Description:
Blueprint (H helix, E strand, L loop, with lengths): L1 E6 L5 E7 L14 E8 L6 E2 L3 E4 L1 E2 L8 H5 L1 E2 L1 H13 L3 E3 L1 H8 L9 E8 L3 H13 L3 E5 L12 H10 L2 E5 L12 H19 L5 E3 L7 H9 L4 E5 L4
Parallel strand pairs: 5-9, 6-7, 8-9, 9-10, 10-11, 12-13
Antiparallel strand pairs: 1-2, 1-13, 2-3, 3-4, 3-5
Helix pairs in contact: 2-4, 4-5, 6-7
Amino acid sequence: MKYLITSFLIALVVGLLVFRPPKNTNKIKQNIPVAKTSVTNINPTSKSYKVPILLYHYVENITDKKDTIRQSLNTTPYIFEDEIKTLVNNNYTFMTASELSDVIDGKKELPAKPVLLTFDDGHWDLDTVVLPILKKYHVKATAYIITGFIGSSDFLNKYQLNDIINSGLIEIGAHTVHHIALRSKLYPTVYYEVNQSKAYLENNYHIKVRSFAYPYGSYDNQAMQIVKDAGFSNSVSMTGTP
């Protein structure tokens, strides 16, 4: 599986993140993808960057063993903390998606050992399980929120999302309103899903939203252009589904 990261501030940036555990992190369990990143600006004078990224959906102890989808996307709290502790002990610098975007655009220097933690969808355990561990080790992360699902039974409510924002450790990115695949959709649908998700987060939580994640890794040129025009500085997606 691969990932694409795009920065819009200067030029279109395409990066391929190939899952491969970094050296000296042998405590990290192999069922959680560690991305070996090569980010390349299409500007021929630009630099290339390699940044490991860990992607999470659920971090919990699952009680319903019949929920195979949840199990396939889950990391137990014990393993998650072990991974964070391993990275901290190996002197990794935790960055947000926007900070990596600033590096790509020449506004910041890349640390010697950078790493990104990203969380898709905005499930409740981001506040109850993940945040306490991030606070314990003083590390940053990026969370991509499905705005139409806020307050649903399996997702963060508005108070929990405020708790995460106020922590100062987690960058909030948009993940559309209804988590629909954006590839080959009509323009008005894509426009609404992208722009409304950004506007909702900014207007209701008084934050600047710079980062976007394509649901299911589904994108095309139209979707990318709409994301750019909406004012996002960067976006992420799985490659192979353009």
